[in-house]
Amino acid sequence: MFDKQVYINRRLALRKRIKSGLVLILGNAESPMNYRSNCYRFRQDSNFLYFFGLDLPNLVGVIDIEDGRDSLYGDDFDIDDIIWMGPQPSLSELGGRVGVLSTHPHRDLFGLVNRSIQQGRRVHILPPYRPDNIMLLERLLGINQLMVKSYASLDLVRAVVALRSIKEDCEIEELERAATVGYRMHVAAMRMAKPGATEQELAGHLEGLAIAHGYMPSFPIILSQNGETLHNHDHSQVLTEGRLLLVDAGAENGMHYASDNTRTMPVGGKFSSRQRDIYNIVLAANNKAIELAKPGVPYLDVHRATSGKVITEGLKALGLMKGDVDEAVANGAHALFQPHGLGHMMGLDVHDMEDLGENYVGYDDEITRVNQFGTGSLRLGRRLQKGFVLTDEPGIYFIPALIEKWKAERINEAFICYDKLQDYYNFGGIRLEDDLLITDTGCRIIGKRIPITVDEVEATMSQ
Ligand code: GLY
Ligand code: MN
């Protein structure tokens, strides 16, 4: 964990943004796979990690705005735990590591919350996403579990988003560490993408690499020759010479900071000229985003300039789109080929803070989500600020079912050369994703850039 002062400072910063009441930050519990003591790998809640740093289950952090005290609620391990788990620190020792001096048994939380409600004090909670925390809040607050989410405090959500959006130097160091392992995972995929290997072998190797570093994948690995399916978790195919393989994978380091990169490579190591043409359009869009992303610029504009304009211009030059480029983008015609947004925030979560509500993270009073297919999926649209960390992930996909649907409904037929698209039904998809840190004047890629040009990818694949 970071030095305790980091957590003390974050809690102080939160206090300045919340006027009154009691702030509850719930840690996560273990999550059983098939019976109580056989659990999935424990993943602490990211907000709890941010403010209270402790990577252990069954803890609740409390920030009392009026009395100025931060507290931890949890239970000390008993002798049975110690027999199975070895010596464990006490709750007060754990609290000391993150600058919390006031520690209490978990059951005392009920009295505290009850008293606060009786006194008419506001109890601020974040939107829970795990059933056991929803049930805990039901019991603590006396609210039906179906209503618990709607009780979440917008003041608290906005305050947490404001703080977590700006990455501290110590966080950027962790993101760089995650990126180093992410780099190794992608280079390994490039070296293994030979005809006859299986998608599962590659996916398993990448996951193993993350785990061998004491990390884990930051999300279930997407690795498929059917890269046109945006989040394809099927790994059942044998790699075939001439097909494209899309690999979207990242590492989450020991401090739970993420990397998230996508590379697309030709099985066998050489792009065909048709693959290269499409690839270079996506690469141009990715590079353009790096050129444009800087403080003050809305990411929605960067999305339109890259996922919209660069991709439309490129596809028009290849004869797959037609008409006026700006008009095509305004009509959302490019979304046939890229039905997702340019990127999202990243940090302690690969889609950072998505539990708090995408619109609170990615939009604000000035820039609201666009109601249009494709651009409507953009998770981050608001103006960029120094310290934001986000992904830049344009793509071009040929999704036969979507093309057929649009063609039958004559959607955007002024801009799309439907008669040319039949030849691309087996093409797959290309996505190229880098992670960016917004700096004073622009942005920079986090970590060493994974091979991305056609020449770099082919050279890496041949090693
Ligand atoms: N890399 C997975 C995603 O951004 O959704
Ligand atoms: Mn991503």
Describe this structure in words.
- The chain is 39% helix and 13% strand.
- The protein folds into two domains: 4-165, 3-Layer(aba) Sandwich (Creatine Amidinohydrolase, Chain A, domain 1); 169-461, Creatinase/methionine aminopeptidase superfamily (Creatine Amidinohydrolase).
- The longest helix has 24 residues, at 169-192.
- The protein is an alpha+beta fold.
- The protein contains 17 helices and 17 strands.
- It has helices spanning 4-17, 46-52, 79-85, 91-97, 108-118, 131-141, 145-148, 154-165, 169-192, 199-212, 273-292, 299-317, 325-330, 358-362, 400-408, 418-421, 454-461, and strands at residues 22-26, 32-35, 38-39, 60-64, 70-73, 102-104, 123-124, 216-217, 222-224, 244-249, 251-252, 261-266, 389-392, 395-397, 429-431, 434-438, 443-445.
- Strands 6-5-4-1-7 form a five-stranded mixed β-sheet. Strands 9-10-12 form a three-stranded antiparallel β-sheet.
- Helix 1 (4-17) crosses helix 8 (154-165), helix 9 (169-192) packs antiparallel against helix 10 (199-212) and helix 11 packs antiparallel against helix 12.
- Strand 16 and strand 17 (443-445) form a beta hairpin.
- The mean pLDDT is 98.
- The two termini are 38 Å apart.
- It binds glycine and manganese (II) ion.
- Glycine is lined by residues 219, 248, 260.
